[in-house]
Amino acid sequence: MKKRDLIIYRIITGLFSALVLMGASQYFFNHQVVKEMFESIHYPTYLIYPMGVAKFLGLVAIWSNKSKTIKEWAYAGYVFNFILAISAHLNVNDGEFMPATVALVFVVASYIYDRKVYPRI
């Protein structure tokens, strides 16, 4: 493992985590705005709280190295979530797809550097 790769991994994962935490905290602290956004992209509003909890738990899984399998599933869950978010925003043509696109780039970069820093056998 190179020290440079570890630094890049931590910076990218930190930026990704900050982006996810800002978005997920809105699910709990600005519920009405998130509810209106979910309705505008035709998502059921009962998903707001479970998605917020899942996003927080996904970050815990990524930052802890307790289980490689759970960490892989957390990365996969984020990729699915961001692809669906991009698709939903593009389908309703509201122009709000960029935050999800940036998050998708961060999660892919974080995953790539995670594999470099913590190689699997």
Secondary structure category = mainly alpha
Distance between the termini: 14 Å
Q: In one word, what is the shape?
A: elongated
Mean pLDDT: 93
Helix content: over 70%
Give the helices and strands, then pairings.
Blueprint: H1 3-29, H2 31-40, H3 48-63, H4 68-92, H5 98-117
Helix pairs in contact: 1-2, 1-3, 1-5, 3-4, 4-5
Explain what this protein looks like in three dimensions:
- The protein is mainly α and 121 residues long.
- The chain has one domain.
- Helix content is 81%, strand content 0%.
- The chain has five helices and no strands.
- Helix 3 packs across helix 4.
- The longest helix has 27 residues.
- The two termini are 14 Å apart.
In short:
The protein is mainly alpha-helical. The chain contains five helices and no strands.
Looking at this protein, list some descriptive labels.
121 residues, mainly alpha
